[in-house]
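Two proteins follow. First one:
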Amino acid sequence: MPANKNAGKHPSYKKRNMSEEAREHKQEYDKKFSAKPEQVEKRVESNTARRKAKANGKDIKGKDYDHAVGGFVKTATNRGRKEKSRLKK
């Protein structure tokens, strides 16, 4: 797969006042994280479920596949869910 030429140029980086160094660090981290076997497995599962749902004629526009629930939920719900790893201590 070709390198993402737009990586690090998203408007949200400016909004967050990220320095060039911070942006590069985030790109490195994201690349390593995406390559982890667990993440690859989740992505494969999600892509398979999406393909299957579309083939069956389900309307999944604006929805993400949720690994915890095992089905499609609204994007905001899936990305906003509180997990133990994200809770402040």
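Second one, unrelated to the first:
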Amino acid sequence: MVALPIRIRAIFQDGKFVPQEPCALPEAAEVQLIVEGSNITPPAVTDPAERQRILNEVVQRMMSQPLSADAPKLTRDELHERR
């Protein structure tokens, strides 16, 4: 008997795929996953110390160039405008 494939949306969290909807699979069922549509790119830098250094540099640059008090206040729609 060939089982029909089912599609289950899941989030990868804490090293596990967590279904985002109920599924009628028995406990400890073995499944085959095909990951598609992920728009997440793995980081080019994986060393934690180097990543922290980069983050500190970005924060330092942001702090050295604060927005002025008279900068325009954009609405939510303006911030998310698609062109």
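SUMMARY FIELD: The mean pLDDT is 86. The beta strands are 10-13, 16-19.
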